[in-house]
């Protein structure tokens, strides 16, 4: 798009240059043509003048121009006129084309300017797009980095899960292989079971065939059975014990098979299992040997049955004597067999002891197997050693069982050979019972194998279910991880929005700290005001710049803060000095007032003494007493004039410098004034002397009214009614100017001749004492006020020192915590303003 616009702009510029060249050429041609036309018109005018002259002359006289020449001139003139007309037409056409070209050029220039403005706008848009692209690329790189991290984590998690799944699949394949093996084993056992069932049917048929013969033989051997019951019971117990031993041997074989399976499982990890496999092969050969022995025993039993049948045939043919003889022989042989049975019982008891020991060993083996299966801390070497020990014990027990079986087989052979005919009669039933026992044991064995296979299959099914549950758990964990990733992404977005809001709040606080003028001049980020978090997010570099400038502004303000604090300290120190001077001046004034009160007291006492002396006298010389009175009155007038000057100076000072409390009292002049309030006004130095009013009293009363600035309520109550009204008027006539009181106090004091002592003079004495008490109280209050002012100034100084320390701490904290600098500065500025306000308030109160 930009390349096409650049090409179009270049093409337009080329066209404009060509048009300018054409315009210049056309201007030059126009000037040349105009000049030629102008020259021709001039020449034509000259020719006309020349032709006119001869014509005019020819009218007066004969001319020398012939007609042919005139015709030539006219013809040339017509040609020139035609050329002039053609040139004019051409000039008009060229002017029209020139105007069209000028319009076209102006249109092109306007289009060019418009296109330049559009190009500038497009370039600005392009720069904005480039900035947005850079920001988007930065955001994309950040997102891509986060995505790569998340992708790596997810890939690692997926790899771990895939490895777990592969391990589970391998375990599942092993379980399936075990199940297949168990199924094959079950099929083999089923086939063996069916073959045994067929053999059992054949045996049952043979048994049914033999039962008929047995019924015939039973009648013949009932007498023999009664004698042989004890031997049969002993033999049955012995056979039961043999069966139990056989069952234990089978159980040991089962355990041996389980150990063999365990050994095959451990054979993949250990190299020494080959020796165990060889031992197991030896055990298998021994078992095959025992099977062969059992087969030989079966053949021997079959041969015995045939011999018994032959003997039975011989017995049927022989006579009863021979039968009796045979029976006697059999009885002898039965006695011998009883002896041998007793020996066998002893051997069996020994064997039982051995079997009990083997049983204990077997229990110990089972416990070891249980510990092997449930021992979490056992090692492979210990397990292999335990298995080898169990295998050796199993092999020893198997060998002992084989020896016992061999011994039993030998004994059985001896008994068969010794019993003779007794064995021939009971052999069939015993064989049948043996066959039944074998069938039952085989069935039990098959049932145990089936139960073991079913248990193994159930355990495998449980393992498969556990694996499936594990797979489901892994899937749920994967889904939870997905949700966690989504939650983390949402949390990341929330944190970004919170960061932007925090930056916006920081900008608002910093802009308020820096001021509105600075904020208006420095609040633009690429032409936009940071009024929304999205603006800040899109323009982080610009926002960083204005934040840095705001921090610099705050640093400059904080740098100037020391100067401001010093200026405030200077102002406070000046106020303190003025306050101290005012306090000294007021203390001096109070001392002067005390001296004046003492002088008035002395004057009153002197006056009372004079009055008493006058009363004591009988007035013999009135002229002399008048002269003394006039002298004392003149002295008193001079003293009062001096006091009046002091009071006038004091009134002038209070007029020029009225205190805030006096101004407040003047503003509240309509409010009821108490004695204590008037006392405060008098102590502040803001009220002037009260006017005397229209009451006519003694000079002492006028003097006290000029000295006092207020009267107590007790003194007012003791005064006469007209004086009480005067005092009330004095309390009400307070105003900001204090002019009336000054005029009344500054006027001449009318002295009257002393009169005899009255009760009112006694009241004045009491009032003087009360005034002394008040002066003392005022002085103490002044001292307390001075002490409080000093304490407040000390507090202000301590507060300024605390502010300095806080500023130093803020500077140290600003280096480490730049974000909290605005708030700390605002807090310190507020505290500084509060401290300045409190010092100003203390200063005003001290001035009051």
From TrEMBL:
Source organism = Hortaea werneckii
Biased composition annotated in UniProt, kind: Basic and acidic residues: 443-454, 779-817
**Ranges for domain Mto1-like Mto2p-binding:** 763-813
Parts forming coiled coils: 471-505
Ranges for the region named Disordered are 25-79, 443-466, 614-637, 675-763, 779-848
Question: Compositional bias (Polar residues) spans?
Answer: 44-66, 743-761
Question: What protein name is recorded for this chain?
Answer: Mto1-like Mto2p-binding domain-containing protein
GO MF annotation: an example: actin filament binding
An example of a Gene Ontology cellular component annotation for this protein is: myosin II complex
Keywords from UniProt, A to Z, are: Coiled coil
Q: Where is the composition biased (Low complexity)?
A: 688-698
InterPro entries with a match to the protein in the record:
Mto1-like_Mto2p-bd (IPR024545)
């Amino acid at each position: 798009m930009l390349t096409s616009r650049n090409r179009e702009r270049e093409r337009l510029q080329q066209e404009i240059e060509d048009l300018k060249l054409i315009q210049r050429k056309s201007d030059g041609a126009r000037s040349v043509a105009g000049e030629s036309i102008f020259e021709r018109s001039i020449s034509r005018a000259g020719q006309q003048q020349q032709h006119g002259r001869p014509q005019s002359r020819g009218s007066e006289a004969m001319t020398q121009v012939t007609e042919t020449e005139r015709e030539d001139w006219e013809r040339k003139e017509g040609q020139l006129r035609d050329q002039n007309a053609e040139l004019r037409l051409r000039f008009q056409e060229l002017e029209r084309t020139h105007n069209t070209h000028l319009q076209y050029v102006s249109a092109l220039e306007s289009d060019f300017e418009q296109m330049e403005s559009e190009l500038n706008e497009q370039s600005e848009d392009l720069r904005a797009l480039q900035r947005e692209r850079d920001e988007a690329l930065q955001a994309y790189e950040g997102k891509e980095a986060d995505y790569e991290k998340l992708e790596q984590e997810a890939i690692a998690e997926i790899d771990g899960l895939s490895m777990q799944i592969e391990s589970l699949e391998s375990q599942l394949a092993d379980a399936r292989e075990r199940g297949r093996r168990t199924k094959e084993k079950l099929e083999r056992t089923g086939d063996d079971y069916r073959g045994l069932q067929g053999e059992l049917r054949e045996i049952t048929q043979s048994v049914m065939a033999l039962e008929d013969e047995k019924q015939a033989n039973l009648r013949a051997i009932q007498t023999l059975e009664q004698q042989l019951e004890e031997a049969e019971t002993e033999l049955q117990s012995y056979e039961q014990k043999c069966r139990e031993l056989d069952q234990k041997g089978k159980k040991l074989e089962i355990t041996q098979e389980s150990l063999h399976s365990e050994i095959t499982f451990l054979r993949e990890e250990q190299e020494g299992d080959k020796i165990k496999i060889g031992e197991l092969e030896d055990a298998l050969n021994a078992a095959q040997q025992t099977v062969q022995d059992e087969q030989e025993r079966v053949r021997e039993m079959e041969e015995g049955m045939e011999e018994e049948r032959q003997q039975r045939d011989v017995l049927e043919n022989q006579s009863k004597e021979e039968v009796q003889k045979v029976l006697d022989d059999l009885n002898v042989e039965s006695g011998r067999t009883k002896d041998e049975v007793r020996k066998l019982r002893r051997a069996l008891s020994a064997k039982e002891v051995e079997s009990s020991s083997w049983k204990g060993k077997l229990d110990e083996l089972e416990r070891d197997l249980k510990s092997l299966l449930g021992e979490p801390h056992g090692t492979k070497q210990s397990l292999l050693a335990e298995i080898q020990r169990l295998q050796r014990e199993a092999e020893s027990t198997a060998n002992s069982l084989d020896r016992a079986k061999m011994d039993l087989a030998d004994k059985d052979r001896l008994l068969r050979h010794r019993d003779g005919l007794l064995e021939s009669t009971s052999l069939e039933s015993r064989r049948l019972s043996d066959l039944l026992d074998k069938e039952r044991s085989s069935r039990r064995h098959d049932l145990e194998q089936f139960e073991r296979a079913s248990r193994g299959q159930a355990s495998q099914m449980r393992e498969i279910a556990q694996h499936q549950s594990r797979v489901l758990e892994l899937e749920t964990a994967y889904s939870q991880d997905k949700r966690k990733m989504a939650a983390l992404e949402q949390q990341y977005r929330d944190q970004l929005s919170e960061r932007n809001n925090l930056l916006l709040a920081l900008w608002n606080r910093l802009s308020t700290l820096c001021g509105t003028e600075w904020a208006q001049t420095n609040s633009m980020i690429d032409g936009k005001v940071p009024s929304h978090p999205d603006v800040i997010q899109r323009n982080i570099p610009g926002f960083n710049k204005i934040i840095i400038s705001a921090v610099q502004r705050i640093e400059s303000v904080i740098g100037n803060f020391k100067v401001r604090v010093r200026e405030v300290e200077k102002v406070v120190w000046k106020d303190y000095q003025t306050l101290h001077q005012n306090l000294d001046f007021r203390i001096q004034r109070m001392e002067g007032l005390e001296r004046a009160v003492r002088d008035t007291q002395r004057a009153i006492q002197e006056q009372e003494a004079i009055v008493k002396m006058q009363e004591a006298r009988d007035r013999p010389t009135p002229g002399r007493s008048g002269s003394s009175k006039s002298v004392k009155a003149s002295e008193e007038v001079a003293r009062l004039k001096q006091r009046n000057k002091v009071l006038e100076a004091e009134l002038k000072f209070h007029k020029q410098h009225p205190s805030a409390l006096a101004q407040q009292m003047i503003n509240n002049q309509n409010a009821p004034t108490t004695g204590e309030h008037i006392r405060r006004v008098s102590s502040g130095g803001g009220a002037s002397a009260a006017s005397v009013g229209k009451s006519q009293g003694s000079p002492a009363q006028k003097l006290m009214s000029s000295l006092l600035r207020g009267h107590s309520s007790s003194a007012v109550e003791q005064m006469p009614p007209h004086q009480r009204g005067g005092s009330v008027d004095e309390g009400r006539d307070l105003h900001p100017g204090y002019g009336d009181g000054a005029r009344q106090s500054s006027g001449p004091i009318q002295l009257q001749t002393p009169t005899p002592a009255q009760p009112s003079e006694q009241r004045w004495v009491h009032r003087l004492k009360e005034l002394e008490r008040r002066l003392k109280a005022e002085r103490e209050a002044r001292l307390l006020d001075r002490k409080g002012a000093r304490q407040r100034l000390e507090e202000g100084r301590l507060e300024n020192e605390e502010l300095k320390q806080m500023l130093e701490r803020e500077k140290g904290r600003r280096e480490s915590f730049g974000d909290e600098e605005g708030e700390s500065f605002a807090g310190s500025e507020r505290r500084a303003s509060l401290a300045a306000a409190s010092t100003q308030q203390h200063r005003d109160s001290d001035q009051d």
